[in-house]
Amino acid sequence: MDPLTPARTGPDAPFTVLFDGREIRALPGQSIAAALWSSGVTAWRTTRGGGRPRGVFCGIGVCFDCLVTVDGRPNQRACLVPAVRGADVRTQRGTGHDDRHED
Ligand code: FES
Predict the structure, then answer these.
(1) 61 close to ligand 1 (CB < 6 Angstrom)
(2) Which of 30, 48, 62, 79 could disulfide-link 58, Cβ–Cβ 3.0 to 4.6 Å?
(3) Is the minimum distance from the CB of 42 to ligand 1 under 6 angstroms?
């Protein structure tokens, strides 16, 4: 075997997660942030004070700019939470607690 030839590498089959009610594609091992970025979504939170859009800033779980609501749980860091099949991901407004029971 040629050591410079990759040995059957590649991600497993893609799956979908919901983002604000629409399906987006994700790959096994991707974070929610990576799946959103791959789908062209760059902002999924609004700030408490001014309602300004936010997405990934640090990408390593430090800044908390990427907060998102996942399966009804607000304040999940999209850059750290793995995308899982069928997850219900929603834009988070403010603290995320006001829209906890909205549908
Ligand atoms: S982008 Fe900074 S915590 Fe997620």
Answers:
(1) yes
(2) 62
(3) no
